Amino acid sequence: MLPERSLPGLHEHRPVLYNLVAVDFEVYGKVHGVHFEEFTKEQADKLGVRGWCMNTAHGTVQGQLQGSEDNIQAMMNWLKSKGSPASEIERAEFRNQQSILELTFNDFTIRRE
Predict the structure, then answer these.
(1) What are phi and psi of 53, to 5 degrees?
(2) Which string of DSSP letters, residue by residue, matches 23-89?
(3) How far is CA 20 from CA 39, 89, 90, 103, in A?
(4) At what angle do helices 36-47 and 69-81 cross, to 10 degrees?
(5) Considering the chain, what percentage of its residues have pLDDT values greater than 90?
(6) What's the whole-model pTM score?
(7) How far is residue 60's CA from residue 51's CA, in Å, rounded to a whole number?
(8) If 0-12 CB within 10 Å is exposed, 13-18 middle and 19+ buried, where does residue 51 land?
């Protein structure tokens, strides 16, 4: 009779842990009047990213993102290269990226000035 073998972790039920991150962003270019905020919310919802965005008085869109590291990276790539169909992104800046222990937003919202 062969000895019983167990594979490490086979019977263990561990929750999958994701590296959660938060980052502030600001997008420059033709981002007002082109539904940039609505498309940003739609993309964030698709990726499961939480946070907010809003138009600024100086013609940019700014906000904050929270989520898994992979989804935040995907959202950052979308913000700097895609945006809404009619937008013309000059650049996107990301600041204050940090690891977080928990999400503090329930969803992604559009804020009004």
Answers:
(1) -150, 160
(2) EEEEEEEE-SSS-HHHHHHHHHHHHT-EEEEEE-TTS-EEEEEEEEHHHHHHHHHHHHHT-STT-EE
(3) 23, 27, 28, 8
(4) 160
(5) 82
(6) 0.83
(7) 17
(8) buried
Quote the tokens at residue 67.
Answer: 């989520």
Residue 12 CB neighbour total at 10 angstroms: 7
**How do 108-110 and 50-55 pair as beta strands?**
parallel
Mean pLDDT to the nearest integer, 19-47: 98
* Count, residues in the chain: 113
Residue with tokens 């977080």: 100
Tokens 């842990």 label which residue? 17
